[in-house]
Amino acid sequence: MSLSWWDAPCQSLDAIASNKASARQQQLTKPTGSLGQLEQVAIDLAGMQGRERPSVDSLWIAIFAADHGVVAEGVSAYPQAVTGQMLRNFVAGGAAISVLARQLDAALEVIDLGTAVPLEPLSNVRHLQVGAGTQNFAQGPAMTRAQALIALEAGRDSVRRALDAGAQLYIGGEMGIGNTSSASALACALLGCPARLMVGPGTGLDVAGVAHKTAVIERALALHQAHLGEPLALLQHLGGFEIAALVGAYLACAQQGLAVLVDGFICSVAALLAVRINPACRQWLLFAHRGAEPGHQAVLEALQAQPLLQLSLRLGEGSGAALAVPLLQLACRLHSDMATFAEAAVADRPA
């Protein structure tokens, strides 16, 4: 029986490059470990890029957008029309991620996987229309298996475009009214934890709204209990098209050897799903920040991830990852351009 593409082996990190980078860190004019996480980031990137002195100057940001049928249960503070409106805003340059991409000189692509409100063709948007959003997972499966596979492939195709453009770092972002409900349900199933520990306000629910959202997710978890043991089945029953695309993108990056910077709660849930599908992809994932959603910390802990930032962000769009890019760039610059003790004629610590 042949393997499905998502089961294919991931690239191995370059141990020689990592070891050389680690040795270089020991020789730079600073106390060992004094740059904290930035030292390990540089070493990790060296292993990913196969060179002692890595760089992340060529950036690819992909925003996957889709609607969620569970919004019919009243779990969002915003109507689904906002998803399409934000697609227009992305390509018009007015969204946060649009501003950040310009500032970083990053390539930005926008992929519409399916909105509930029909959209006119938008220039610079890839309209895939996997469906008019997912179905209401509180009443049945969110999507068919065929739709899940198409969405996974959309993520893989985005990575191919990034590689063709010479990207050194891949950022996936998401947009979709109702997608914190989907991500929370997936996280509960993946971690085996109750919804009350995972569910947050999303785009701005009040206390009563969070309680209602929690009850909806608890009902959905009970409904789909028989299908919660396998990651792809989880994705089909509780996921979103954009979450599936992120999963596919993360897997493809690991298989093709492209470093990933993971954004917030929803992207981290997609990363956890990707790791459950193909565990070897974990080594290709860097994590940008810990967001404001209460479940994000538990997901990060399950991934053994140490995010770079904690700014109480909850915007999505890949914005938190974009904000962390300068730290990665500075980590690489410090690693490459600082003098060694020998070069600077500075006394090294005693042996």
From TrEMBL:
Alphabetic keyword roster: Cobalamin biosynthesis, Glycosyltransferase, Transferase
Gene3D superfamilies from the UniProt entry: 1.10.1610.10, 3.40.50.10210
Enzyme nomenclature, EC number: 2.4.2.21
Catalytic machinery residues: E317 (proton acceptor)
Domain of life from the UniProt record: Bacteria
Pfam families for the chain: DBI_PRT
Keyword set includes Transferase: yes
Annotated coiled-coil segments of the chain: none
UniProt keyword annotation of Transferase present: yes
Molecular function GO terms recorded: nicotinate-nucleotide-dimethylbenzimidazole phosphoribosyltransferase activity
Catalytic activity: 5,6-dimethylbenzimidazole + nicotinate beta-D-ribonucleotide = alpha-ribazole 5'-phosphate + nicotinate + H(+)
Pathway given in the UniProt record: Nucleoside biosynthesis; alpha-ribazole biosynthesis; alpha-ribazole from 5,6-dimethylbenzimidazole: step 1/2
Family named by the database record: Belongs to the CobT family.
Main function: Catalyzes the synthesis of alpha-ribazole-5'-phosphate from nicotinate mononucleotide (NAMN) and 5,6-dimethylbenzimidazole (DMB).
Family matches, as HAMAP family: CobT
Record-given protein name: Nicotinate-nucleotide--dimethylbenzimidazole phosphoribosyltransferase
Organism per entry: Pseudomonas cavernicola
Source species taxonomy: Bacteria, Pseudomonadati, Pseudomonadota, Gammaproteobacteria, Pseudomonadales
